[in-house]
UniProtKB/TrEMBL annotation:
Source species of the chain: Mytilus galloprovincialis
Protein name: Uncharacterized protein
GO molecular function, one term: 3'-5'-RNA exonuclease activity
Keywords: Hydrolase, Nuclease
InterPro entries per UniProt: Oligoribonuclease
Amino acid sequence: MLQKSVLSDLQDKTIFQEILSVATIGQIITTPFLRLIDSKTVATHILDLNQHFLQLQINLKQWSKDPSDLISDTDVISESASLMSTHLYLTVSRLLKNQLPEGCHGTDNETIREESLTVPKHNRTSEKNFADFKQIRHFKPNASIEHIEATLMWVNNKTVEWLDLMDPEIKNAKITLAMKRAPEFISKWHERKIQLKTKPS
């Protein structure tokens, strides 16, 4: 049934041309940017992306008015490409404003580079954490936030591997100390939650 529905959509000339337009955006913008972010030679620092963000903004603004450099085909594809470029231009201008020339991170100098040396070029880690959080909530609907956060930290920090490298006596001592301090940290966590809830927005 699904295949028949897809085939039916593909036979619609307008839909097919719009798909081609989306594919072109993916080939010219999305894929190169993903490669750029993963690059260990072209963009080794998050600030190296600024110039590419600016060029993308310039190109999108141009394509929103005249997409002929982006795609050359029927009026339907050109209109679709122009519309997508307009929306992408607005999105880039809004979401990347801090890394564009007038933004708070738009300046590139050695001091800022040193301060932001460990800043990742992507947010995959946090996205993965949210996905893992959702999965744990799915399988353990009654699990507390503290439990889920502790589980994620335990996995992400590779605590088991770290403990296994220790002498058994030291390992047991650290586990005992952690168990002893747990109630204190849980109490502080609850205090902090109350502070955040009562803090005026």
